[in-house]
UniProtKB/TrEMBL annotation:
GO terms for biological process: glycolytic process. InterPro entries: Aldolase_TIM (IPR013785), FBA_I (IPR000741). This is fructose-bisphosphate aldolase. Its EC number is 4.1.2.13. Pathway: Carbohydrate degradation; glycolysis; D-glyceraldehyde 3-phosphate and glycerone phosphate from D-glucose: step 4/4. It comes from the Eukaryota. Keywords: Glycolysis, Lyase. It comes from Pycnococcus provasolii. It catalyses: beta-D-fructose 1,6-bisphosphate = D-glyceraldehyde 3-phosphate + dihydroxyacetone phosphate. It holds the Pfam family Glycolytic. One of its GO terms (molecular function) is fructose-bisphosphate aldolase activity. Belongs to the class I fructose-bisphosphate aldolase family.
Amino acid sequence: VKANVADFADELLKTANHITSPGKGILAMDESNATCGKRLESVGVENTEENRRRYRELLVSTPNLGEHIGGAILFEETLYQSTKDGKPFVDVLNGAGVLPGIKVDKGLRPMCNSNGESWCMGLDGLAERCDEYYKQGARFAKWRSVISIPDGPSRKAMVDCAYGLARYAAICQNSGLVPIVEPEILLDGEHDIDRTFEVASQTWAETFKFLEDQDVLLDRILLKPSMVGPGADCPKRNTADEVAAATLRMLNSRVPPAVPGIMFLSGGLSELDSTLYLNAMNQSPNPWHVSFSYARALQNTVLKTWSGDDAKVAEAQEILFNRTKDNGMAQLGKFDA
Ligand code: 13P
């Protein structure tokens, strides 16, 4: 008999609380095989299962990773992999106090009758997959849908994004996984910060409406928003304080205080900007834990430093630790550039 969400109510809360401990965030390392391959090839490393495993071993076995990281999001392949010495990654992470999470969406496909927008795939069979991931040790999950400002955003894209996220979130909670709700508003485009604000406000209103329709427990989810800033090609740039203020204004008007954590994506921001913007948002108290779930902004320099060389593992790990520390300090509003 399938468990009910009530069977997991305490555990979901415990998981969410652990990930949102003061000074902690999430290490996103759930790149699909294709995306991970692109990253590896950019540093001259062939995209093989073994090379993906070697790179992920470097990340998960970084000394003291759990000091500033409460959870790591894995791709399905990684959830079942082990270190060279045969220790499952799940055990390595748990040993460091880092909860294993899993990306459960099946990626994006072109949306029919649209101007280049996309659908997020993966609801079919999701409950069964979530049960398996839980057995394998996953305790939280991620589903990333995208909204493109220059390609739309059309009404149907927003509704589909919100509906998919809500169905996914309900399924996860019934399988004991805390869902990270991620409608990523892409950075691409020439639009200014006001336009991003407007689209983000609509997107989150729609998302919460559908979460409510599906009876998702709002105190047992995490959000993964994009920061509200100008499009990447907008000539008018904004300061860290302006981005932080617009982002918080949007969230305060849309997100109930019951939601425990807001774990931002870096979305192509530089390593320094993503830390500065987070730090700016934590200069005064927020109703939620405002933190990070970065992939590129934690990994870019780490990957370049490693470039496939076993002799560089320790140096790359030290860089990763320092990136997690800077962002952990930014979560506390105490980052000093
Ligand atoms: P970036 O921080 O590189 O945007 O990735 C975060 C993520 O996991 C997007 O889904």
